Input
Amino acid sequence: MAIFDLAKAYAGGETPLQLQQISENNHIPRGYLLQIMRLLGMAGILYSARGSKGGYTLARHPSEISIGDVMRAINGPHAWLAQPNMPPLPSPLDTAWESALQEMMEVLDRKTFADLIPPS
Output
């Protein structure tokens, strides 16, 4: 949701959004959001500017940032393949599960944040 807010601001030509504003808009605890924003910054999805007019902005156009990009930045490159506390599946089920997750990521890679912004 934070990236969605930043994509809408980017499309509207707005100045950077401050962490507190994003936190309040999406009911995300500020500390947790800061951790996520750092991961997204390290992934080159957004950047931050310090100072009174600072805040967060997207590093690329929303059409160049997919939902899959954000999911991998936050969860790691193979986060969907290994689920914590999940017992090992028999080989045919494991293969089917991995295939389904791979297809899901392909769909998320095709959907960009620009696709999510309603026309004005």
User: Anything to note?
Assistant: The mean pLDDT is 87. The chain is about 55% helix and 5% strand.
